[in-house]
Predict the 3D structure of the following.
Amino acid sequence: MPAAPDLTIERVDTRILDVPLIRPHGFATMTATAQPILLVSVHLAGGVVGYGEGVVPGGPWWGGESVETMKVIVDRYLAPVMVGREVSDLAGILVDFGKVVANDRFAKASCDVAMHDAWARALGIPVRDLLGGAARDSIEVTWALGVLPLEKAVPEIEERIAEFGHRSFKLKMGSGDPTVDTGRIVQLAGELDGRVGLRIDVNARWDRMTALRHLPALAEAGIELFEQPTPADDLATLREITRRTGVPVMADESVCSPSDALAVVREEAADVIALKTTKLGGLRESVKTAAVAEAAGLACHGATSLEGPFGTAASLHFACATPAVNFGSELFGPMLLKESYTTTDLVYADGRVTLPEGPGLGLEPDAAAVSRFTRD
Ligand code: MUC
Ligand code: MG
Protein backbone atom coordinates (compact mmCIF):
# COMPACT_ATOMS: atom_id res chain seq x y z
CA MET A 1 0.00 0.00 0.00
CA PRO A 2 1.39 3.49 -0.86
CA ALA A 3 2.26 5.67 2.15
CA ALA A 4 -0.59 7.98 3.22
CA PRO A 5 0.10 11.58 2.09
CA ASP A 6 1.08 14.08 4.78
CA LEU A 7 -2.02 16.29 5.02
CA THR A 8 -0.58 18.78 7.52
CA ILE A 9 -1.11 22.40 6.45
CA GLU A 10 2.36 23.91 6.55
CA ARG A 11 1.81 27.36 5.07
CA VAL A 12 -0.92 29.60 3.63
CA ASP A 13 0.06 32.28 1.08
CA THR A 14 -2.08 35.08 -0.31
CA ARG A 15 -1.59 37.54 -3.15
CA ILE A 16 -3.89 40.04 -4.80
CA LEU A 17 -4.29 39.76 -8.57
CA ASP A 18 -5.89 42.38 -10.82
CA VAL A 19 -7.06 40.55 -13.94
CA PRO A 20 -8.23 42.81 -16.81
CA LEU A 21 -11.73 42.25 -18.24
CA ILE A 22 -12.56 41.85 -21.95
CA ARG A 23 -14.82 44.93 -21.59
CA PRO A 24 -15.92 47.16 -18.69
CA HIS A 25 -18.62 45.45 -16.57
CA GLY A 26 -21.18 47.97 -15.30
CA PHE A 27 -22.76 47.18 -11.94
CA ALA A 28 -25.50 49.22 -10.25
CA THR A 29 -23.03 51.47 -8.41
CA MET A 30 -19.66 51.05 -10.13
CA THR A 31 -18.01 49.87 -13.33
CA ALA A 32 -15.17 47.36 -13.20
CA THR A 33 -12.40 47.17 -15.81
CA ALA A 34 -10.45 44.49 -13.96
CA GLN A 35 -11.46 41.80 -11.49
CA PRO A 36 -9.48 41.88 -8.24
CA ILE A 37 -8.89 38.32 -6.94
CA LEU A 38 -7.25 37.22 -3.71
CA LEU A 39 -5.41 34.04 -4.67
CA VAL A 40 -5.00 31.82 -1.62
CA SER A 41 -2.65 28.84 -1.68
CA VAL A 42 -2.68 26.19 1.02
CA HIS A 43 0.61 24.25 1.15
CA LEU A 44 0.60 20.75 2.66
CA ALA A 45 3.69 19.20 4.28
CA GLY A 46 3.65 16.43 1.63
CA GLY A 47 4.26 19.07 -1.09
CA VAL A 48 0.69 19.37 -2.41
CA VAL A 49 -0.68 22.91 -2.97
CA GLY A 50 -4.39 23.80 -3.16
CA TYR A 51 -5.85 27.04 -4.55
CA GLY A 52 -8.87 29.17 -3.72
CA GLU A 53 -10.03 32.65 -4.71
CA GLY A 54 -11.39 35.46 -2.58
CA VAL A 55 -13.66 37.33 -5.01
CA VAL A 56 -16.47 39.86 -4.70
CA PRO A 57 -18.33 41.25 -7.73
CA GLY A 58 -16.11 44.20 -8.66
CA GLY A 59 -15.59 45.59 -5.16
CA PRO A 60 -16.97 46.09 -1.64
CA TRP A 61 -20.23 47.66 -2.88
CA TRP A 62 -21.86 44.20 -3.07
CA GLY A 63 -21.36 42.79 0.41
CA GLY A 64 -18.87 44.95 2.30
CA GLU A 65 -15.79 42.75 1.78
CA SER A 66 -13.00 43.48 -0.71
CA VAL A 67 -9.77 41.73 -1.70
CA GLU A 68 -7.93 44.09 0.65
CA THR A 69 -10.07 43.21 3.70
CA MET A 70 -9.95 39.51 2.77
CA LYS A 71 -6.15 39.56 2.63
CA VAL A 72 -5.90 40.93 6.18
CA ILE A 73 -8.51 38.50 7.50
CA VAL A 74 -6.87 35.47 5.88
CA ASP A 75 -3.26 36.41 6.69
CA ARG A 76 -3.82 37.54 10.24
CA TYR A 77 -6.75 35.46 11.48
CA LEU A 78 -7.70 32.47 9.30
CA ALA A 79 -4.22 31.23 8.29
CA PRO A 80 -3.14 30.71 11.94
CA VAL A 81 -6.25 28.54 12.46
CA MET A 82 -5.27 26.33 9.49
CA VAL A 83 -1.49 26.01 9.91
CA GLY A 84 -0.38 22.88 11.76
CA ARG A 85 -3.71 21.05 11.30
CA GLU A 86 -4.47 18.27 8.88
CA VAL A 87 -6.55 19.46 5.93
CA SER A 88 -8.84 16.46 6.52
CA ASP A 89 -9.94 18.34 9.67
CA LEU A 90 -11.71 20.78 7.30
CA ALA A 91 -15.07 20.77 9.10
CA GLY A 92 -13.37 21.42 12.44
CA ILE A 93 -11.21 24.19 10.96
CA LEU A 94 -14.33 25.91 9.60
CA VAL A 95 -15.95 25.75 13.04
CA ASP A 96 -12.83 27.37 14.48
CA PHE A 97 -12.89 30.08 11.78
CA GLY A 98 -16.23 31.11 13.28
CA LYS A 99 -14.63 31.54 16.70
CA VAL A 100 -12.07 34.09 15.47
CA VAL A 101 -13.92 35.84 12.61
CA ALA A 102 -17.62 36.70 12.45
CA ASN A 103 -19.23 36.95 8.99
CA ASP A 104 -16.58 37.71 6.32
CA ARG A 105 -17.85 34.76 4.33
CA PHE A 106 -16.07 35.69 1.10
CA ALA A 107 -12.71 35.48 2.94
CA LYS A 108 -13.65 32.16 4.55
CA ALA A 109 -14.74 30.79 1.15
CA SER A 110 -11.28 31.40 -0.32
CA CYS A 111 -9.76 29.18 2.40
CA ASP A 112 -12.54 26.56 2.27
CA VAL A 113 -11.98 26.13 -1.48
CA ALA A 114 -8.16 26.06 -1.20
CA MET A 115 -8.45 23.37 1.50
CA HIS A 116 -10.86 21.29 -0.59
CA ASP A 117 -8.46 21.57 -3.54
CA ALA A 118 -5.42 20.59 -1.45
CA TRP A 119 -7.20 17.69 0.23
CA ALA A 120 -8.59 16.30 -3.04
CA ARG A 121 -5.21 16.66 -4.80
CA ALA A 122 -3.47 14.84 -1.95
CA LEU A 123 -5.97 11.98 -2.31
CA GLY A 124 -5.71 12.05 -6.13
CA ILE A 125 -9.46 12.68 -6.57
CA PRO A 126 -11.48 15.59 -7.98
CA VAL A 127 -13.10 18.06 -5.56
CA ARG A 128 -16.58 16.88 -6.60
CA ASP A 129 -15.78 13.50 -5.05
CA LEU A 130 -15.37 15.19 -1.66
CA LEU A 131 -18.89 16.56 -2.21
CA GLY A 132 -20.58 13.28 -3.10
CA GLY A 133 -19.46 12.75 -6.70
CA ALA A 134 -20.69 14.11 -10.03
CA ALA A 135 -24.45 13.90 -10.48
CA ARG A 136 -23.83 15.47 -13.95
CA ASP A 137 -20.76 16.59 -15.84
CA SER A 138 -21.84 20.00 -17.18
CA ILE A 139 -24.31 22.80 -16.48
CA GLU A 140 -26.07 25.45 -18.54
CA VAL A 141 -24.50 28.92 -18.35
CA THR A 142 -26.41 32.20 -18.49
CA TRP A 143 -24.24 35.09 -19.76
CA ALA A 144 -24.48 38.31 -17.73
CA LEU A 145 -24.28 41.70 -19.40
CA GLY A 146 -23.23 44.65 -17.34
CA VAL A 147 -25.28 47.84 -17.52
CA LEU A 148 -24.91 48.53 -21.26
CA PRO A 149 -26.67 50.77 -23.81
CA LEU A 150 -28.81 48.96 -26.39
CA GLU A 151 -26.33 49.48 -29.24
CA LYS A 152 -23.70 47.55 -27.30
CA ALA A 153 -25.97 45.00 -25.60
CA VAL A 154 -27.60 43.57 -28.76
CA PRO A 155 -24.30 42.82 -30.60
CA GLU A 156 -22.83 41.28 -27.44
CA ILE A 157 -25.84 38.96 -27.11
CA GLU A 158 -25.72 38.02 -30.81
CA GLU A 159 -22.01 37.30 -30.57
CA ARG A 160 -22.43 35.10 -27.48
CA ILE A 161 -25.27 33.12 -29.08
CA ALA A 162 -23.19 32.53 -32.21
CA GLU A 163 -19.93 31.67 -30.43
CA PHE A 164 -21.01 29.81 -27.30
CA GLY A 165 -24.68 29.00 -27.73
CA HIS A 166 -25.91 30.76 -24.58
CA ARG A 167 -29.67 30.46 -24.30
CA SER A 168 -30.30 32.99 -21.55
CA PHE A 169 -28.88 36.36 -20.55
CA LYS A 170 -28.88 38.31 -17.32
CA LEU A 171 -29.16 42.07 -17.60
CA LYS A 172 -27.79 44.20 -14.78
CA MET A 173 -30.05 47.03 -13.64
CA GLY A 174 -30.30 49.41 -10.70
CA SER A 175 -28.06 52.24 -11.89
CA GLY A 176 -29.50 55.61 -12.88
CA ASP A 177 -33.12 56.59 -13.27
CA PRO A 178 -35.43 53.54 -12.91
CA THR A 179 -37.76 54.73 -15.70
CA VAL A 180 -34.88 55.08 -18.16
CA ASP A 181 -33.34 51.82 -16.91
CA THR A 182 -36.65 49.99 -17.41
CA GLY A 183 -37.14 51.53 -20.87
CA ARG A 184 -33.68 50.29 -21.89
CA ILE A 185 -34.52 46.69 -20.94
CA VAL A 186 -38.04 46.75 -22.47
CA GLN A 187 -36.52 47.96 -25.75
CA LEU A 188 -33.84 45.27 -25.62
CA ALA A 189 -36.44 42.56 -25.01
CA GLY A 190 -38.40 43.90 -27.99
CA GLU A 191 -35.32 43.69 -30.25
CA LEU A 192 -34.59 40.10 -29.23
CA ASP A 193 -38.24 39.15 -29.61
CA GLY A 194 -38.22 36.02 -27.39
CA ARG A 195 -35.23 34.36 -29.12
CA VAL A 196 -33.42 33.92 -25.78
CA GLY A 197 -34.40 33.97 -22.11
CA LEU A 198 -33.83 37.33 -20.38
CA ARG A 199 -33.44 37.90 -16.64
CA ILE A 200 -32.75 41.07 -14.68
CA ASP A 201 -30.65 41.68 -11.56
CA VAL A 202 -31.35 44.95 -9.75
CA ASN A 203 -28.84 44.18 -6.98
CA ALA A 204 -31.24 45.29 -4.24
CA ARG A 205 -31.24 48.93 -5.44
CA TRP A 206 -34.99 49.63 -5.76
CA ASP A 207 -37.35 50.38 -2.91
CA ARG A 208 -40.78 48.77 -2.73
CA MET A 209 -42.67 51.47 -4.64
CA THR A 210 -40.06 51.68 -7.42
CA ALA A 211 -40.14 47.91 -7.82
CA LEU A 212 -43.94 47.71 -7.88
CA ARG A 213 -44.07 50.58 -10.39
CA HIS A 214 -41.54 49.20 -12.89
CA LEU A 215 -41.54 45.41 -12.60
CA PRO A 216 -44.95 44.98 -14.31
CA ALA A 217 -43.58 46.57 -17.53
CA LEU A 218 -40.64 44.19 -17.38
CA ALA A 219 -42.99 41.24 -16.85
CA GLU A 220 -45.02 42.44 -19.83
CA ALA A 221 -41.82 42.58 -21.92
CA GLY A 222 -41.24 38.88 -21.20
CA ILE A 223 -38.47 39.04 -18.57
CA GLU A 224 -38.44 35.51 -17.14
CA LEU A 225 -36.78 36.09 -13.74
CA PHE A 226 -36.43 39.02 -11.32
CA GLU A 227 -33.23 38.80 -9.27
CA GLN A 228 -33.16 40.70 -5.98
CA PRO A 229 -35.06 43.84 -7.00
CA THR A 230 -35.32 45.16 -3.42
CA PRO A 231 -33.16 45.30 -0.25
CA ALA A 232 -31.70 42.10 1.19
CA ASP A 233 -33.38 42.21 4.60
CA ASP A 234 -36.87 43.18 3.37
CA LEU A 235 -38.32 39.72 2.78
CA ALA A 236 -41.90 40.98 3.04
CA THR A 237 -41.45 43.11 -0.09
CA LEU A 238 -39.74 40.28 -1.93
CA ARG A 239 -42.71 38.10 -1.08
CA GLU A 240 -45.15 40.76 -2.25
CA ILE A 241 -43.30 41.06 -5.58
CA THR A 242 -43.27 37.29 -5.98
CA ARG A 243 -47.04 37.22 -5.45
CA ARG A 244 -48.00 40.29 -7.46
CA THR A 245 -45.89 40.07 -10.62
CA GLY A 246 -46.32 36.39 -11.44
CA VAL A 247 -42.66 36.31 -12.51
CA PRO A 248 -40.31 34.04 -10.49
CA VAL A 249 -38.12 35.99 -8.06
CA MET A 250 -34.54 34.97 -7.25
CA ALA A 251 -33.07 35.88 -3.86
CA ASP A 252 -29.36 36.74 -4.05
CA GLU A 253 -28.26 39.37 -1.50
CA SER A 254 -31.03 38.05 0.82
CA VAL A 255 -29.34 34.64 1.16
CA CYS A 256 -25.78 34.58 2.50
CA SER A 257 -26.17 31.56 4.84
CA PRO A 258 -28.29 28.46 5.37
CA SER A 259 -30.33 30.33 7.98
CA ASP A 260 -30.99 33.14 5.48
CA ALA A 261 -32.34 30.47 3.12
CA LEU A 262 -34.56 29.19 5.90
CA ALA A 263 -35.91 32.73 6.44
CA VAL A 264 -36.76 32.98 2.73
CA VAL A 265 -38.54 29.64 2.97
CA ARG A 266 -40.49 30.70 6.07
CA GLU A 267 -41.50 34.04 4.51
CA GLU A 268 -42.24 32.44 1.12
CA ALA A 269 -40.18 35.34 -0.21
CA ALA A 270 -38.75 33.84 -3.42
CA ASP A 271 -38.93 30.99 -5.93
CA VAL A 272 -35.23 30.56 -6.63
CA ILE A 273 -32.11 30.96 -4.50
CA ALA A 274 -28.85 32.20 -6.01
CA LEU A 275 -26.06 30.06 -4.55
CA LYS A 276 -22.70 31.83 -4.78
CA THR A 277 -20.08 29.64 -3.10
CA THR A 278 -18.26 32.91 -2.26
CA LYS A 279 -20.97 34.84 -0.39
CA LEU A 280 -21.99 31.63 1.43
CA GLY A 281 -18.52 31.05 2.89
CA GLY A 282 -17.42 28.10 0.77
CA LEU A 283 -18.45 24.69 -0.47
CA ARG A 284 -19.64 23.17 2.80
CA GLU A 285 -21.95 26.09 3.59
CA SER A 286 -23.21 26.02 -0.01
CA VAL A 287 -24.15 22.34 0.34
CA LYS A 288 -26.09 23.15 3.53
CA THR A 289 -27.87 26.10 1.92
CA ALA A 290 -28.86 24.00 -1.09
CA ALA A 291 -30.29 21.37 1.26
CA VAL A 292 -32.54 23.94 2.94
CA ALA A 293 -33.84 25.14 -0.43
CA GLU A 294 -34.32 21.61 -1.72
CA ALA A 295 -36.29 20.53 1.34
CA ALA A 296 -38.64 23.47 0.80
CA GLY A 297 -39.05 22.84 -2.92
CA LEU A 298 -37.23 26.03 -3.96
CA ALA A 299 -35.07 26.03 -7.08
CA CYS A 300 -31.32 26.76 -6.85
CA HIS A 301 -29.16 28.65 -9.35
CA GLY A 302 -25.36 28.23 -9.59
CA ALA A 303 -24.53 31.91 -9.21
CA THR A 304 -21.23 33.79 -9.43
CA SER A 305 -19.27 36.68 -7.96
CA LEU A 306 -17.34 36.78 -11.26
CA GLU A 307 -14.73 34.39 -9.95
CA GLY A 308 -11.66 33.55 -12.00
CA PRO A 309 -10.73 30.00 -13.02
CA PHE A 310 -10.22 28.43 -9.57
CA GLY A 311 -13.29 30.01 -7.98
CA THR A 312 -15.46 29.13 -10.97
CA ALA A 313 -14.15 25.56 -11.03
CA ALA A 314 -15.03 25.26 -7.32
CA SER A 315 -18.58 26.46 -7.97
CA LEU A 316 -18.82 24.08 -10.94
CA HIS A 317 -17.75 21.06 -8.86
CA PHE A 318 -20.33 22.08 -6.26
CA ALA A 319 -23.11 22.61 -8.81
CA CYS A 320 -22.44 19.28 -10.56
CA ALA A 321 -22.28 17.37 -7.26
CA THR A 322 -25.52 18.96 -6.01
CA PRO A 323 -28.72 17.90 -7.80
CA ALA A 324 -30.57 20.67 -5.93
CA VAL A 325 -28.84 23.16 -8.26
CA ASN A 326 -31.62 22.66 -10.79
CA PHE A 327 -31.99 26.16 -12.26
CA GLY A 328 -28.83 26.42 -14.36
CA SER A 329 -25.85 28.63 -13.63
CA GLU A 330 -24.12 31.87 -14.53
CA LEU A 331 -20.62 30.45 -14.09
CA PHE A 332 -19.18 32.60 -16.88
CA GLY A 333 -16.52 34.51 -14.86
CA PRO A 334 -13.42 33.18 -16.69
CA MET A 335 -14.91 34.22 -20.05
CA LEU A 336 -15.05 37.82 -18.84
CA LEU A 337 -11.29 37.82 -18.13
CA LYS A 338 -9.04 39.07 -20.92
CA GLU A 339 -6.53 36.37 -20.08
CA SER A 340 -6.47 33.32 -17.86
CA TYR A 341 -3.88 32.59 -15.20
CA THR A 342 -4.20 28.81 -15.32
CA THR A 343 -2.41 26.51 -17.77
CA THR A 344 -5.70 25.12 -19.10
CA ASP A 345 -9.17 26.69 -19.22
CA LEU A 346 -12.64 25.49 -18.37
CA VAL A 347 -14.43 24.39 -21.53
CA TYR A 348 -17.50 26.40 -22.63
CA ALA A 349 -19.60 25.16 -25.56
CA ASP A 350 -23.24 24.87 -26.57
CA GLY A 351 -24.28 27.19 -23.71
CA ARG A 352 -22.72 24.93 -21.06
CA VAL A 353 -19.53 24.59 -19.03
CA THR A 354 -18.04 21.14 -18.45
CA LEU A 355 -16.33 19.75 -15.35
CA PRO A 356 -12.56 19.60 -15.78
CA GLU A 357 -10.70 16.29 -15.37
CA GLY A 358 -7.84 15.74 -12.95
CA PRO A 359 -7.37 15.87 -9.19
CA GLY A 360 -8.55 18.76 -7.03
CA LEU A 361 -10.26 21.56 -8.93
CA GLY A 362 -8.67 20.23 -12.13
CA LEU A 363 -6.68 23.39 -12.98
CA GLU A 364 -3.04 24.43 -12.51
CA PRO A 365 -1.78 28.01 -12.06
CA ASP A 366 0.31 29.56 -14.82
CA ALA A 367 3.18 31.01 -12.77
CA ALA A 368 4.11 33.68 -15.33
CA ALA A 369 0.51 34.95 -15.63
CA VAL A 370 0.06 34.92 -11.86
CA SER A 371 3.17 37.11 -11.45
CA ARG A 372 2.04 39.44 -14.22
CA PHE A 373 -1.33 40.07 -12.58
CA THR A 374 -0.01 40.32 -9.02
CA ARG A 375 -0.57 43.76 -7.50
CA ASP A 376 2.63 45.53 -6.32
C1 MUC B 1 -24.69 39.42 -8.76
O1 MUC B 1 -25.22 40.18 -7.98
O2 MUC B 1 -25.36 38.50 -9.16
C2 MUC B 1 -23.09 38.13 -11.11
C3 MUC B 1 -23.04 38.39 -12.43
C4 MUC B 1 -22.83 39.76 -12.57
O3 MUC B 1 -22.76 40.42 -13.59
O4 MUC B 1 -22.77 40.32 -11.36
C5 MUC B 1 -22.73 39.30 -10.41
C6 MUC B 1 -23.24 39.64 -9.09
MG1 MG C 1 -27.20 39.13 -8.09
Notes: The mean pLDDT is 97. The chain has two domains: 9-124+368-373, 130-367.
